[in-house]
Amino acid sequence: xxxxxxxxxxxxEYRDETQLSVWQFWQRDLRDRKEHKDVFVHGDFKIxxxxxxxxxxxxxxxxxxxxxxxxxxxxxxxxxWEVPNDIKVAGWMAGTYVRGKPEKxxxxxxxxxxxxxxxxxxxxxxxxxPTTQRVELVLRHRNR
Length: 144
Description:
CATH topology: Immunoglobulin-like
Number of helices: 4
Radius of gyration: 17 Å
């Protein structure tokens, strides 16, 4: 019976002003990935909250596309997660529960619904050691 509502035609033609179908969600995300491939394909990757068993959070950063935070609730329960102090979220750009931009706090604790994913444009606070930044930049260029 599932095939009557969960099929390609229904997913492509889904019309809701606030939500996306699974197909529409992945089309949007693949379009964004292609548009920002400097970040999401070739960019640096850093896990943010490695000890958290429910949340998978990481930052991707590119030289042109800036820094982006991805937060994924990998469990079937709603949970809260605290945005680390060294990450400044400029704004939430996409989420799995809404068609537009999610309305969540950009700092402190945020609530994540079951299986919710969020994407934020952000800036990582500058490191205090400029020499370390230069060395990391040189190493990134050598590894490409």
